[in-house]
Design a protein that fits this description.
Elements (H helix, E strand, L loop, with lengths): L2 H21 L8 H14 L8 H5 L6 H11 L3 H8 E3 L6 E3 L7 E2 L2 E2 L7 H5 L12 H7 L4 H17 L6
Antiparallel strand pairs: 1-2, 3-4
Helix pairs in contact: 1-7, 1-8, 2-8, 4-5
Length: about 170
């Protein structure tokens, strides 16, 4: 995965794809879920997250209390020590997030705590959320970081525009 190339392409098309997602707030094709499932299957035929790991390099998951307990136990430390060493509490949301990026558990583009990783990481890039259009803000935020999300939204947009009379971008 050429992240420099992706960053340029993603930045160039982010506004277009975000605009499409905004349109989905008001217009949702009747077969939207089928379109998403088919497009997502094609995306994952060509996507290997271990060649990218951009999510771990540029984003931070939210750590739930369960995540903190599970991961700290796995690492042989107390939840308090784990938070002090690795996490910050966001003032506006109260969420626990990584102190730094890339993620401290990223090693050679792979997660060193994969089996006990945060739920937010396990669910990323959230393509399986249903209904798709209820997570437009999530996809908009991920377009510029996740090549799989970029590809999914781009494929869904093309398919919707092909099958339906759709507002201009």
């Amino acid at each position: 995965m050429d992240l420099k190339k992706f960053k340029k392409v993603g930045a160039k098309k982010k506004k277009l794809l975000a605009g499409f997602l905004d349109q989905l707030n008001d217009l949702v094709p009747e077969d939207m879920q089928e379109i998403v499932v088919e497009a997502d299957a094609r995306v994952w035929q060509k996507t290997d997250c271990t060649t990218c790991a951009n999510c771990c390099k540029k984003m931070t998951p939210t750590f739930t209390t369960r995540d903190i307990t599970r991961i700290s136990r796995h690492l042989g430390m107390t939840a308090k020590d784990f938070k002090e060493k690795w996490l910050n509490k966001e003032e506006d949301t109260g969420d626990w997030v990584n102190k730094s990026q890339p993620c401290q558990f990223l090693q050679d583009n792979k997660c060193s705590i994969y089996d006990v990783r945060p739920a937010d990481c396990a669910e990323f890039p959230h393509h399986n959320k249903v209904p798709f259009d209820m997570y437009n803000d999530t996809y908009k935020a991920n377009i510029e970081y996740c090549p799989a999300t970029y590809s999914l939204v781009n494929k869904v947009r093309k398919e919707v525009r092909k099958k339906y009379v759709w507002p201009e971008d």
